[in-house]
Amino acid sequence: MDGIREMGLRNVASQCSISESDDYDLSKLLDKPKLNIKREKSFDERSLSELSIGLSRGGLEVYETMYSPGGRSGFGTPASSARNSFEPHPMVAEAWDALRRSLVSFRGQPVGTVAAQDHSEEALNYDQVFVRDFVPSALAFLMNGEPDIVKNFLLKTLHLQGWEKRIDRFKLGEGVMPASFKVLHDPIRQTDSVVADFGESAIGRVAPVDSGFWWIILLRAYTKSTGDLSLAETPDCQKGMRLILSLCLSEGFDTFPTLLCADGCSMIDRRMGIYGYPIEIQSLFFMALRCALTLLKHDTEGKEFVERITKRLHALSYHMRSYFWLDFQQLNDIYRYKTEEYSHTAVNKFNVIPDSIPEWVFDFMPNRGGYFIGNVSPARMDFRWFALGNLVAILCSLATPEQSMAIMDLLESRWEELVGEMPQKICYPAIESHDWRITTGCDPKNTRWSYHNGGSWPVLLWLLTAACIKTGRPQIARRAIDLAESRLLKDSWPEYYDGKNGRYIGKQARKFQTWSIAGYLVAKMLLEDPSHVGMISLEEDKQMKPLIKRSSSWTC
Ligand code: GLC
Predict the structure, then answer these.
(1) What class of enzyme is it (predicted)?
(2) C-alpha of residue 267 to centroid of ligand 1, in Å
């Protein structure tokens, strides 16, 4: 069955809305004249207060941003470069060509992009459309005024969500979104069919927890960019969102509002010691909840979710900002922690033993700057830096404005370690020797400073650029893009680089990796037209500020 045709989209009356407060006032950040373009009242103009969930807009000034729907340029001509007053980098045209070559069609309609087009290596599943990998491709198409492929992708994956999913004799949750899918063309019968992977074929049988979150985030990006509410409002999309939310908002034995996950549940899809409450998932969870809040209708079913989301966001932001945040002051406090404290008066709530703080973090921590650490659970703080989780935390305002600035300060002062010669490190530092053996299970692909273990991933450039724009520090992005431009094309768009400084093309890196290509394009388009950042950024919600002050370096 073809989800796209059978879905029967209807144009229902607009009932869901996007908060005005998630419109971003870039003019303030970038010191440019305010963008004040009048538009049709649609998606963005409806305030959160209309949703009657008790969140006030807190007197936020709202300025229009310049999202313009399709029709800006002909197919094959990037609108961004057509609009340029300066010559685009020659890499941009090459990147568009490569991105278009990666397109996958289903019954004549483009529905996604393959992960990589490297014919010199065994394809494994790199010839599939990965949900997480498609996100930068989708943003590139949206920014270029080509939303149809994004819509097709959202509907195709939504259709796949409806499949019955099993691993051996175990039935997976209804809301689970696939990690990837593949279109099979039968040239004789002239038919197309789809196979999907929900973790049952993936190496290690890892669960794609991030897929559902990226799906919701992309649905908002599509809606925000096109102003077309009708897709998000279809009963199918509303149901798809509710099913994803049911998976992560269900009650259980949890004592924390964070989401408990197995190892390898996200971009790092191999054993890397991220089990528990990994920052990447918590940031995506937070962002997806905030996006869902703006997309859910206020019918009987939707309302119940809106209430649950609001409560969870409140608890989650408090927990993350209080316990995952690390800066010089906080590190010093942990270093002096007492242990074995009983009752709610405990300062060292998770009974973290100061001796477990790794040596490297004392030198690494600058006086100015901070970040969300990798993981927090009983007697465990994973002090590693993970780029994706921190950058997404900035974009969705899980980080307070002060924390966002501190993350950017850290990036600047630890540039060599976190960015090096190729933006940027997926995590820092690498795990080595005995730690590598017990943490990865002796994974030869994840040896120190390679792949997920401290490798450098060009795809992260778009997230870095978006975070730079949101925090008003585009010069950092420019520096990173310059680095990428010095090598990416010449090296045929590798998936990742190896080495402490990211100087070497990754040992097993695929070439023509689509998200390296699309990530570069998105970064370029964001810098050229910073108003695009509104698609993937949410303004701070004043209601979510923690009530108490835990550290002197950030205000509550
Ligand atoms: C690798 C990456 C994963 C990505 C996939 C396809 O498995 O770890 O994040 O989605 O390749 O590119």
Answers:
(1) hydrolase
(2) 6
CB 115 within 8 A of CB 129: yes
User: Can you tell me the distance from the alpha carbon of 524 to that of 462, in angstroms, rounded to the nearest whole number?
Assistant: 8
Pairing of strands 191-197, 180-186: antiparallel
Q: Is the pLDDT of residue 227 over 50?
A: yes
Instruction: Give yes or no for residue 326 having a pLDDT over 60.
Output: yes
For the CA of 515, the nearest atom of ligand 1: 12
What DSSP designation does 213 have?
Answer: H
Q: Which residues pair with 261 in a beta bridge?
A: 276
Find how far residue 242's CA is from the centre of its chain. 20
Three-state SS across 391-442?
HHHHHCCCCCHHHHHHHHHHHHHCHHHHCCCCCCECEECCCCHHHHHHHHCC
Minimal-distance CA residue to ligand 1 atom 2: 267
- Give the Å distance between the CA of 121 and the centre of ligand 1: 15
Q: Which stretches does DSSP call E strand in 278-406?
A: 325-327, 370-372, 375-377, 380-382, 385-386
Distance (Å) from CA 269 to ligand 1 centroid: 7
Say what the pLDDT of residue 552 is.
36
Q: Does domain 104-535 have CATH number 2.30.30.100?
A: no
Residue nearest to atom 6 of ligand 1 (CA): 115
Cα distance between residue 296 and residue 294, in whole Å: 6
Domains of the chain: which residue ranges?
A: 104-535
What 8-state DSSP symbol labels residue 472?
T
Residue with the smallest CA separation from ligand 1 atom 9 is: 267
How many whole angstroms separate alpha carbon 351 and alpha carbon 378?
A: 6
Q: What is the overall mean pLDDT for the chain? A: 86
Q: Token pair of 437, please?
A: 């053996």
Question: Considering the entire predicted model, what is its pTM?
Answer: 0.86
Buried b (16+ CB within 10 A) or exposed e, 315-331: ebbbbbbbbbbbbbbbb
Give the model confidence (pLDDT) of 413-462 as tens digits.
999 999 999 999 999 999 999 999 999 999 999 999 999 999 999 999 99
Distance CA 107, CA 190 (A): 9
Helix crossing, 401-413 with 387-395: angle to 10°?
140
Report pLDDT digits (tens) over 500-539: 999 999 999 999 999 999 999 999 999 999 999 999 999 9
Q: What is the DSSP letter of 114?
A: -
Rounded to whole angstroms, the Cα distance separating 373 from 49 reads 34
DSSP state of 360: H
* Furthest C-alpha separation in the chain: 71
**E strands within 17-172?**
103-106, 109-113, 129-130, 166-167, 170-171
